[in-house]
Amino acid sequence: MSQGSNIQILFCADTHLGFDMPVRPRVERRRRGPDFFANYQKILETAIERQVNLVIHGGDFFFRSKVPDSIVARAYDTLFKFADHRIPIVIVPGNHERSQMPISLFLGHPGIHILTKPQTIEFIIGPNAVAVTGFPNVRGGIRNRFKELLIQTEWEFSEAEVHLLCLHQAIEGAQVGPSNFTFRTGDDVIQRSDLPENFDAVLSGHIHRHQILNQPRQDGTTLPICYPRSTERTSFAERDEEKGFYIIHASDMKPGVRAHLEFEFIPLPARPMVDLVLEAALDPTSLESWLRQQASGLPKDAILRLKAADGLSPAVRAAVTGELLRRTLPSTMNVQFGAEFHNPTERT
């Protein structure tokens, strides 16, 4: 573990384990599921290598609420083995888990802590204490319920040197998507003015884009609100976003004095996402050679989205079959179709 009065906390979120990982696939092809598991493993290995004191997962551990038992067992087995390294981990259930984690004996490990209700958990790390306050994702009306849920955590009774609020929610000012949509109002958005400034930081999952928002405090400092980003790209809206997680360094911890926090970003591998537009001039006879030529200039591990140019003939659309794509494109690629590909009335 870290020595002296410095504390290291690894913070990640939105691992989405089980994404594109069917138990009985109908077609043998490359799946994206192993990419998500590989980055999950890298996070836990980094925690061990860097000898962090605590790991916090900000929710959406799995990609949906009903996950095949084999995927749950694989994810929890890895987690259980990690907890044997005596590094505690806290998980905030997200909206994809429908605010609760699948039940398993693996979760009985004393080093694994699930926020099943509004609560505050304290960890003694050397001469200091770290308090983690939070509650599972609220799937409606968090704006009006937030203050009451916070009271239920009894956070104000903690005298820990470092106090973190951990959530899986949208907070006012957070941005998503290529158009920079900003959460401002609405029943599912927490107002920044409702965040108690006595916390050292707010750590939240749910928003897949990395950002650290700074909420002014009365003493002239700012309360950092950290979204670490998802650990892999889940949609083309994230095609240009770097993925990773944080190690938070806490120092200068003294009674009655706010700890000094530094956020170190650790990048993770993310597959490139590429759009390939089928040109209107294509005909069925030239389609296969055109696809081969286009693929030769793309990253071999690309996630490819096929889009249809306006005016693409119905004959070409019909010729783009799974068998053709498997024959012409590298097996290391993943392929999906743009929405307009099947709807000629939509333009690219």
- Tally of DSSP β-strands: 19
What is the CATH homology-level superfamily of the largest domain?
A: Metallo-dependent phosphatases
* Strand order in space, largest sheet: 4-3-2-1-15-16
Strand-pairing-aware structural class: alpha/beta
Q: Which topology of the largest domain does CATH recognise?
A: Purple Acid Phosphatase, chain A, domain 2
Largest sheet: 6 strands, mixed
Q: Into how many domains do the coordinates divide?
A: 2
Mean pLDDT: 93
- Tell me the span between the first and last alpha carbons: 53 Å
> What is Rg?
23 Å
The general outline is elongated
CATH class of the largest domain: Alpha Beta
Give start-end ranges of low-pLDDT stretches: none
Q: Could you spell the SSE succession in H and E letters?
A: EHEHEEEEHEEEEEEEEEEEHEHHE
From the structure above, extract its key features.
single chain, 2 domains, alpha/beta, 6 helices, elongated
How would you describe this protein?
The chain has 2 domains: 7-268, Metallo-dependent phosphatases (Purple Acid Phosphatase, chain A, domain 2); 273-342, no CATH class. The chain has helices spanning 33-49, 69-83, 142-152, 284-296, 314-319, 322-328; strands at 7-12, 54-57, 89-91, 112-114, 119-125, 128-134, 162-168, 170-171, 175-176, 181-182, 189-190, 201-205, 211-216, 222-227, 243-251, 260-268, 273-278, 303-308, 334-337. Strand 15 (243-251) and strand 16 form a beta hairpin. It is of the alpha/beta class and 348 residues long. Helix 1 (33-49) packs parallel to helix 2 (69-83). Strands 4-3-2-1-15-16 form a 6-stranded mixed beta sheet. A 6-stranded mixed beta sheet has the order 5-6-7-12-14-13, with no helix packed on it. Strands 17-18-19 form a 3-stranded parallel beta sheet, with no helix packed on it. Helices cover 20% and strands 28% of the residues. The chain has 6 helices and 19 strands.
